[in-house]
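Intended use. Records like the one below are meant for learning the mapping from a protein sequence to its folded structure. Do not use them to infer anything beyond what is encoded.
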Amino acid sequence: MQTLGKNIGALFITSLLFTGSVVSLKEVRAQVPQAPATSEIRTNIFVQDELYFGRNKSVGEVSNRDFQLFLQNEVTPRFPDGLTVLDANGQFLGSNGIIKEKTKLLVLIHSNSQEDREEIQEIIDNYKKQFQQESVLRVTSTPKQVRF
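Structure written out for the chain above:
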């Protein structure tokens, strides 16, 4: 019985310790990462945009060659510093049920300037027009700390 009393006492003291630490927690707010002033690594704050280009068309699909030409003519001139393209398989709920399609995922990491945002919108508009697409999904992430 004495052991049970010690265990209950230890449990009580432990619970007080945890309760005290919960009460003392402070609210933490997210902050945009800042580069250290003395950093030897080139550090910048950028935004990441992901563009999901569906490849289905009313007849056929956007070929790899057609997409490469689009990339060469529309994207690379606007973002010559670099980009990433991934092949993906996507799906969405259409009026006739689940629609599955091959997708090209374009990842752009760029400055958060009005000019870059407009360039991305032009890329989207040109893709929709050139390949008869209803939409291009765009996901913009909050500022990212990028190091080279």
